[in-house]
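Supplementary Methods S3. Input chains for the assembly prediction are listed below.
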Amino acid sequence: MTTDADAPLIDRAKRGDQRAFEMLVVKYQRRIERLIGRMVRDADLVADIAQETFIRAYRALPQFRGESAFYTWLYRIAVNTAKKTLVEAKRDPIVTESTLVGRGDEDETSRVEHELSHSETPEAVLASKEIAATVNAAIEALSEDLRQAITLREIEGLSYEEIAEVMRCPIGTVRSRIFRAREAIAERLRPLLDTRHGERW
Amino acid sequence: MSVLAEDADPTMRTLSELMDGEADASWSGRACAAWAADAAARERWHIWHLIGDVLRSDELSSTPQRDGAFLVQLRERLAKEAVVLAPERSLTESRRAVLRRRRWVASATVAAGFVAVVAALVVLRDPPAPVSGPSLAKAPPVTNAAPVAVAQPAPMPPPEPQVLVVNGQLIRDARLDHYLAAHKQHSAIGIPAGLVRSAPPDAGAQR
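Predicted structure tokens for the full assembly:
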């Protein structure tokens, strides 16, 4: 796809719609935290840096020209924020060695387990694993059409038009299949999530 | 598992398309409004993204409690932010204000020009005074001509003969004199005194 999938939300956020920015936060929070987790060991600090990343992005949003994808732009802000925090942490004698992972410029592909914190209890880790297992089981339970549509979209990142070509069906059918796949997986997840219709949001 | 897209809320379907950057622009506003107002829309937005993340990597799995707490904390910080995002609407309004001012000035200029033309026409269409016969002695003294650059209204000239003809030649015409007087009066408005050299209306006739 040539256009950024986030463009409508970015435009609205630029016009002062804070809810549109929150929707982007919900979308990218986990990816940003994982990225920062590669650089910083302390999980509480990871969350703090992620918060700071989104605040900086919010401040800089009027300057975002869309020359790169929004996530690429956000990624750079996250890396810079983490590096700055690490530099400050090295100057702070109170901060222990365990805070730092090591090299500050490790990329997203390297795996480093970070320490558990208050927000990441063993129960929370277990719940996360359970959610992942349920999603994967729900995918397997989908019909072939729905599974292929959601996989091509979420994993391969294809546009609806490209998926329609691959699956040899109208775009309207692609829209419908992706929606139905999401709803079917969500239905299996809800008992685990106990969100009661988004009361936390 | 028996979810039929056709039976679903169109806003939810739009929300799904907005996730993928495939929503029609006119519908994306409705989806954002749903996020703001509808808890079910917020719940779906989170779950669907969580599903996508988990499909890409198990590492990205998280709980709604954790993600919700993150957003609540961020929302509090955003509320304290003194950042102005410069909404496009405000910019447009300021541009509109400038345009409105320009349009007003242009209209005023046109109106002023129109008034000047109407005044000149009114002066020229004055009913002609009865001709009492040509007489140079009845012509107003030319020394009374006021300087051009005076902003005050010029006094009405005394009654003059309509047409002065000497030896079959037109010497002066009262209607022309009225026109010239009105022209001097209107052209003097807004011009500082001294910038325009005054010329008696009958200077040409004296040559």
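The helical segments of chain A are 7-14, 18-37, 43-60, 70-91, 122-141, 144-154, 160-167, 171-193. The mean pLDDT of chain A is 85.
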